[in-house]
Each structure stands twice: as structure tokens, then as C-alpha cells.
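Journal club side-thread
Mid-discussion, someone asked how the predicted structure for our own chain would compare to the paper's figures. Pasting it here so we can look after the session.
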Amino acid sequence: MPLLDIKNLTVSFDTSVGLFKAVDGIDVSVDAREVLAIVGESGSGKSVAMLAVMGLLPGTATVTADKMQFEGLDLLSMSPADKRKIIGKDIAMIFQEPIASLNPCFTVGFQIEEVLAKHMGLKGRAARQRAVELLHLVGIKDGAERLGAFPHQMSGGQCQRVMIAMAIACNPKLLIADEPTTALDVTIQKQILDLLVRLQAEHGMGLIMITHDMGVVAETADRVIVQYKGHKMEEADVLSLFENPKSNYTRALLSALPENAVGDRLPTVSDFVFEPAPGVA
């Protein structure tokens, strides 16, 4: 049984100009100890699909699916109280733009300890000690001193590490990383990716990596889902995807990489007409 199993997920938004379908009938599954990359350009519905799993979409969103199960539990029919016991504990998410995601009014220590109190029942000295351990685990060596810092007093890379510490605080079974290296310099990007893959392997988590960066996909993923305008265009293991892409949209993404430039012009995805790979709905 997959750790997360989603069939025919659709997410629509009620807008001033009518109903907008951001995700249109996609299937997603991931196993424990597997790294799944969901790749596609901005606006392809990658983040919306995972925010639907987390129950974090606004009230204007309508979410439907034939199946949305985590370890066999139905996330769609589950009561809000029961879902809150899972979200943040067994399923955790690292959001884009860590400085914007952290609360500027509270110290990073308070924000980590709040997760520990909510889901693990840890308070006081025990919560503080665990928070220091988590910061050390994600590469912040002076964790005890950093607990009293506010997000604006830390660099983007440090804030991203704090977000990862919060996400893994309760040893989740599934970790969703949404563009975890956005706005970070190349050196820090490599460190964050290495950290995520190491933590995933050490803790046996399922890891869903949302990205538009094919280099990240090649480096981290076991299996890949390619999305375009809310549709799944292709799904394959990472080696097959790069060596023999079936969808012309996947070929477009790969052709647009700088190393694949032909002559003095770099192809763009707008040069292609997109259709799903054979056999993909």
C-alpha cells in the first residue's frame, strides 16, 4: 500500500470570472523511503495539489478526488479534528520562501517548540532541548543561541533550515518540500538538497519534492511526475524520464536546459504543442 495514494484529484477555484480548474484529474502516489519529484513550470498546479493534501487551500477552493488516502486513512472524509492530528505530525510540509513562512513576531525557538507542544506534548526544558537538537540536526551548530533569534535576524539559508527543523520535529512519515531552494544561492541550494535527501534516508520518510528545476529532479528523485496546466503529462522513473521522455512537454523542458541549446538559440517551452504521454490521462 502506498504511503500516500491519490486518484483523480481536481482542485477548482471560484473566481470573479468563473470557475478556474487549477488541478485537473491527476493521480499521485508515493511510498515510504521514496523520493517523488513533481516538476513543471510555474502555474502547473504542483503546489496546489499538495496544499489540497494538507488542507491549506482557501475557502474559494473545491477539492474532489476518487481517493485521497494516507496509510489507508481517507483524508477527504476525515473530521477536521482527526486530520489536525496527522497534518504537521505524520505529514509535514516545507513551504516556499522561508522568511515569509515564518512568523516575524515570534522567535524561531518559540515556533519550533510550538510544534513540539502541539504534537508531542513536550514543554519547557524538554521542548527547548529537543529544539536545540533539531537545529543541530539541520546544520545550525549554535542552536541554543539561535533559539532566541527572530526570522529577520537570520539569513535565508538559516531560515530554510529552521523550516526543515519544524517540519521534521515530529519525525513525519511523509515530507513535502515545495521549492525548498528558491531564492537561495547555489552553494546553499546544494547544502539544503543534500540535507533533505540525508534526512529522508535516515528517517525512512517518503519525500515529495516540488520543483521546476530539472537539475534538482536528476539529483534527488527516484520517480517523477511532470505537470502542465493542472494535467499530468508523464510519470516515469528518473532515468527513463531523462533518457527517453514520452511526453513532448517533458522533451520541451529538457530542451530548454542551457546545455541543450542548439546554435545561438535556446528553445523555449512555448515552441511546443503539449500532449500527455501515451497512456497518461
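Post-session note: The first strand starts at residue 4 and ends at 15.
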